[in-house]
Amino acid sequence: MTHLTSHLPFPSSSSSSSSASSSASTSTLPPPSSHLIISDTLPSPGDFALYHLTSAALSKEKRKVIWVDFRAEGRGSLESVLKKLGTPLPPTTNSQLFIAISPSSLPPSVATTSSAPATTSSSNTISPRLYTDSSSQPQPSLSLTETYDCISAKLEARSMVILDGLSELLWMGMSATDVARFVRAVFARTRSTKSTLVSTLHGDTLPLTSSASAGGVNNADGDADRELLERLLRIGQGTFWRICHLASGRSGDVMGEISSHPLSLPPPASLGSQSQDASATTPSSLPNSQNQILGQTKASYYPSVPRCNPLQYRIEPSTVRVFPKGTGRGFL
User: Fold this and answer.
1) Residue 51 half-sphere exposure, CB side, CA atoms within 13 Å?
2) 8 A C-beta contact, residue 274 and residue 73
3) Is residue 185 in a domain?
4) How many Cα atoms within 13 Å fall on the side-chain side of residue 4?
5) Average pLDDT across the chain, whole number
6) Which of 28, 93, 204, 281 could form a disulfide with 56 if both were Cys (CB 3.0 to 4.6 A apart)?
7) Which residues constitute the domain of residue 116?
8) Listed GO cellular component terms (predicted)?
9) Is the pLDDT score of 328 beyond 80?
10) For the chain, percent of residues with pLDDT exceeding 90
């Protein structure tokens, strides 16, 4: 199990607790009707964050997980890691708690294990088509309609939907606008069922330091990735975890850094009894400083870890250790 919760807690979604207990109550998972965006880099992949969230959803909170695998990693890869962490996936004969959706990038002329979008293969994985035939177009076109329909059909109240590997859609030729429109549609669907949405993508072209950000980054290959991230950030209604490698280069004791950037206040339902006061979330009643609104000093808000002072982590055989920058917790 990873050690993320103590450093990156989320506000509890319980609304039955008292005001005093609500302010101190935290959760491992993002609150319902929220959106968690996770970016990573090739030297520092953010898979461990997904393992952390999936394990917590299945074991602690018993929430349904719908995993949309755009990276084509396969259920077996996730299953082997979670088993090592002590949270094995539910058996394939019982698909009510964990749903694996693996969109197929094969052209329509190539047969797959499932002949229809809603049909599952022997591994209990749903394989909707990404390419569709159209009589008005000579070439197959990319479409996320079947994938959206599969998510909608399996979505239940308080589920957690994971869109894993949105950058792969860009590399296949889909525009950032179309991918962002798909994420907006899925997010609207999850909000209607008080579910949680988690989106992952690559952020290799983002600057690692503030000085690099001021100087600008000229990389045409990363324009689509940056545009998609910007569009997702504009959706708001959640928080952004940025996972990246060290600007100083590889280290034997520190494998990467994590910063957390709140995009909005949590939904009223996650603020406990505080949500009964409607004026508590009006702009006129909020402090002028965003750090006062979204800082770590208040458990009822999303955690804020600035990029100038990020958390650092080290991957071990059966866990991930997270510690404040410079402390090392015995590693440095």
Assistant:
1) 23
2) no
3) yes
4) 30
5) 78
6) 28
7) 47-199
8) elongator holoenzyme complex
9) no
10) 38
